[in-house]
Amino acid sequence: MPETRMTAEDVLRIAAYQDRSPALEAMVIAYAYHRIAGDLSEYLGQACNNWYCYATWTSKAVGESLDLTPDSPFIEDFGRRLRVPRRLRRLFRATLLTLLGPSYQLGLALANRAIFLETASLAVNLWRDVPDGFLKVSPESELTPTPPEFLAGLLEPADPRYLRDAAQLLLEAREASDPEVRAELMFGANIALSAYEQKRAQKALELVLYRPVRWLTRGSWRSLRALVTRRPYAPFPLYAAPHQDQPWLTRKLEELWAGLYTRHLFAVRTPLSDIRVGRPLTAPEGVDLDRAWAPIQDERVRKLAEEFITEDREASTAGVTNWASYPDRMRFIVSYFRVYQTVAALYRVPFDQKLADGLAEEMRRGLVPDSIGEMFDRDPGLPAIRRRLYRYPAESDPDAFEMAHFDFEPFLEAFPFDRSAT
Length: 422
Fold this sequence. Notes:
- The chain is mostly helical.
- It has helices at 8-16, 22-44, 51-65, 73-81, 89-125, 149-154, 161-175, 179-200, 202-229, 236-240, 248-264, 289-292, 299-306, 313-316, 326-340, 353-363, 401-404, and strands at 133-137, 267-269, 274-276, 412-416.
- The longest helix is centred in the N-terminal third of the chain and has 37 residues, at 89-125.
């Protein structure tokens, strides 16, 4: 029996459910992205990849990296890349867990969940004749409750014009009869969605990437002092502060660590292979790089691309020096989209059948948050807001406890598209 299309209620149910481990949650989101990619292909075809194809494999990689159990493939691969002797693997894992801390799993998972909520709510709204808008997690809004510190510290504001542009380009791609025109419009939508979600993820990414250095230089001795004096300290502000606000030594060590990690350890997962981001991007088998890099005809798409890449192919596809740098990261991502746009393997189910069936069942767990399902049925000129005071838990370790028990519902805001501006 064929699966039905993903709906706004499905997206909310997945994002609101709190009883999954971070690794399982990311795998469920990866499978949901795969479903959305397939749903969009009913309108757009599969000659080119839509953004949700790429998000599928990225979220799967996030899920694998969030598995920190003793048998974790992520830790095994990390140790292998660092050439850690097998007899020292247990000590290596214990050290890695200390350096990463609970904020690694919980912060990355929360950012992944928020980005899924925002980007997937846009996609499922496209089944309508005209999309009404999208849901947004709004810790910065005056209309939502005062957020816990970690929420504002993990989600960076991003320009909503990117989501409006993505929706408009996808709607035009749906109506386009010329395959080359449709391909350009889809490429533009992919750029816009990534420009938005990568900006939203910037703070969380810096927290995850820089936290080991910040723990060594700023957190370790404070933890020891707190243990001796029994006077607790708040670790999250130390870990979430911007790179430029860190002390000189911390900044220098962060730059060295980020460069090492980017050049030698980090890769972008695809169904064909893992792309080492510190090395120049090359075309996979069957892709004509000259054709992929043909001049962009649509002015809007060209301007979107020019925000991040140039027509200098060699410079645009060069390896990344620091994955925490938004401009450098976006340059590589946009080049990746351009080169891999026709790689049909990205539409594959990212799991074997048994696991995919289990994830499909897992997606149905939980309830849609109260009243949220009515958001897009109201007057599109009046964004619906859930107003509710946020009650902090009695225990309050912002580095772990609240992130593990966080509820998005009070901070959801529905944003209608201003179609007069398109």
